[in-house]
Amino acid sequence: MISAARPLLITNVRLSDDPSGQPVSVSVAGGRIEAIGPKLANLAPPPAAIVEDGGGALLLPGFVEGHTHLDKTLWGQDWYVNEVGPNLTDRIANERAFRKTSGHDAGVQSLALSHAFLAAGTTRLRTHVDIDTDAGLRYLEGVLATRDALAEVLDMQIVAFPQSGLLIRPGTGKLLDDALAAGADVLGALDPALIDGDPVGSLDATFALAERYGKPIDIHLHEPGEIGAFTFKLLLDRVEALGMQGRVVVSHAFCLGALPEPTALLERIARLRVALLTSAPPSRPVPPLKRCRELGITIFGGNDGIRDTWTPYGAPDMLERAMLIGMRYDLRRDDDLAAAFDCVSAAGAQGCGFADYGLHAGARADLVLVDADTLAHAVVARPVRKLVVANGRIVARDGVLAE
Amino acid sequence: MISAARPLLITNVRLSDDPSGQPVSVSVAGGRIEAIGPKLANLAPPPAAIVEDGGGALLLPGFVEGHTHLDKTLWGQDWYVNEVGPNLTDRIANERAFRKTSGHDAGVQSLALSHAFLAAGTTRLRTHVDIDTDAGLRYLEGVLATRDALAEVLDMQIVAFPQSGLLIRPGTGKLLDDALAAGADVLGALDPALIDGDPVGSLDATFALAERYGKPIDIHLHEPGEIGAFTFKLLLDRVEALGMQGRVVVSHAFCLGALPEPTALLERIARLRVALLTSAPPSRPVPPLKRCRELGITIFGGNDGIRDTWTPYGAPDMLERAMLIGMRYDLRRDDDLAAAFDCVSAAGAQGCGFADYGLHAGARADLVLVDADTLAHAVVARPVRKLVVANGRIVARDGVLAE
Q1: Measured between CB atoms, does B17 come within 8 Å of chain A?
Q2: How many Å lie between the alpha carbon of B218 and the closest alpha carbon of chain A?
Q3: Min Cα separation A383/chain B (Å)
Q4: ipTM of this complex > 0.85?
Q5: What's the CA gap between B276 and A259, in Å, rounded?
Q6: Which of left, alpha, beta for A141 (phi over 0: left; psi -120 to 50: alpha)?
Q7: Could you list the residue range(s) of the whole structural domain that residue A29 is in?
Q8: Into how many domains does chain B fold?
């Protein structure tokens, strides 16, 4: 499916932070950016190099999907008619029933969606994989197979995620332990108060397991307003006590969008280097993006589920997600749209801990070319990806995965 | 640009409300749907008819854009770098300055965006055109030229809109009068309290002018919460007193999303058959869609501005707008997504008063074919439009305007 990792020279592209529009070239070898700049324009390509004329396209770094559920998606399947009830627990129960009876294959589905992500320019991705007492590690095994199959191009982190609860479903803790042993990168968690019913016990169990494996944590916190803030403070106490600064992500964090005075909590989040993930849902409160960025909090973006039994929405297109983030926060100025793009690029890499990210010499060569005047234009127009390079390999052209 | 209005037979398409997926045919003559149904499948086409094999596509009615600003758009131009301040008045002042100095041509721009709307399946459209003391009727003249140029295919309503205020900018009332005389279909208005500073005086002037010309009204009401509700009640008093039931649209109506107890107001809106337009902005309160529909209020959708000095967002794709409406209201079930689609189709036609709308014999032949399993699938996947028929003429294929 992927080209050999031959050296690569891309000429005649533009950098979004250079308003002069001066054409630059990028040389790539061994999966890394060797050099990038105008002086390369007249260089002879290295022997055996693939040379690509960028045709004046805008050069962007490979995109980062900060939170999705590859194992759940129905991407590429016949349309799933959603008749599910409105509550979180309805959706959890419906999905467990569907998965038991439908023959849904997490390996096949995660591969199909990963291919679509690559074709649209995403080269780093964090996925939450359900671990529960019905399925055991079955979904994890499917996603691990996809990670292996795409290891040369897609940098994937797997979160072992107790979608059906941890304490309320005895046996789940042991399965999470097994999942980390089997290769999951991050320990997940879910609403310690409103799902598990015991915020202290649930958080203690989560932090203890993460500590045992030396793994970071990514917790889904849907809990609203004051109860969410209560749980958040318990979590921060544990980050501080256990030295987990810089190793915890709180996903969704709706509560931070609904507190009358969140400043003290936000300042503590910044101090403890806890990162925030938002899918920027238009129907829920969301963490205050600009205030978080001003305080130095890493806040980044993701789809959450994509076309699954939970939701019909979502697309493996992080430019579209950046646009939705921009719309959610009413970002209209070009400099504000750059912040929306940051959520699906550098801030995503920072929040997840993806190494060697960006458009600089020595970074992993993850590159996307689009026909757009400016970065803001790319976000709102979401043009087809002319070329996608992942870890130094050409993986897609004109939106279509390379053979 | 458009094919002659020859009879047309489209075979092998599916109806979204028929889960059997049984193929049907549609015969079209004189710009109207003659017949639609499975029995046509084996009919010989009428003499000289164009025959199109729908290839199993889903058949949808032409889409309705309920609120846009064709005269403002920068669609197809070089990217406009937005550095505008955050307030409504900043945006109004910035746009007036831009239009004075940039050579922006409302005729050229409205035609470009109308073409894009047609290519993406919109066949009926209501556009608000700025009338102000700087430009007089200049933008209106440009949009009237576009309406004339596309009269055979695009059913366009023009709202004469005092974007810079009515009472606060003396001379505007006379210009609105001239605009209605020159061919505008609807009288617009803007924030009678918070822009004009005199809700009674502003509404009285608007209703008097509408009455003089026998024209309907479409008012932009951004006023929030209690002040918005106050203005809304004054407006309803005038609808009732002047017999304007069924002839007034309130656009945006953010206030209806922020009142603790809107039921009495909503019931009066329903009783007076005032319709509501929403662009479903994710960062603002919005009227309660389901409650409105339950009460029998016509609520429909539009982009508002598309890529102009106000906003970088928007696209001439009403399936995308339906998706954004669905996301804003957290509509996940297929039956709820059908309501989102209704906002950009039948409810839009009802709210604007576009005649002979729909997929039935005698309706104007406005048809869109897409490759999608179901209506909900079409809304979230927004597939390329395989075929667009407007007023019985083929106007676009595979997303591209016909020659």
Answers
A1: no
A2: 24
A3: 13
A4: yes
A5: 31
A6: alpha
A7: 8-62+358-401
A8: 2
